[in-house]
């Protein structure tokens, strides 16, 4: 989950399991991609 980025039309990939996205199964991964070149500031990620 990211803080500080504007993620227009990307809420399906940022949030709690079963609320705004499907859970990530054990031993699997999720590649998080979104444009950020035009953004500046402090960004924070946590899971």
Automatic annotation (TrEMBL):
The keyword Transferase does not apply. The keyword Mitochondrion does not apply. It comes from the Eukaryota. Transmembrane segments: none annotated. Residues 1-47 form the Plastocyanin-like domain. GO terms for molecular function: copper ion binding; oxidoreductase activity. InterPro entries: Cu-oxidase-like_N, Cu-oxidase_fam, Cupredoxin. Gene3D superfamilies: Cupredoxins - blue copper proteins. Keywords: Copper, Metal-binding, Oxidoreductase. PANTHER family: FI03373P-RELATED, MULTI-COPPER OXIDASE. Belongs to the multicopper oxidase family. This is Putative laccase.
């Amino acid at each position: 989950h990211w803080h500080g980025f504007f993620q227009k039309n990307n809420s399906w990939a940022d949030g709690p399991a079963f609320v705004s996205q499907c859970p990530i199964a054990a031993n699997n991964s999720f590649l998080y991609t979104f444009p950020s070149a035009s953004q500046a500031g402090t960004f924070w990620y946590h899971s």
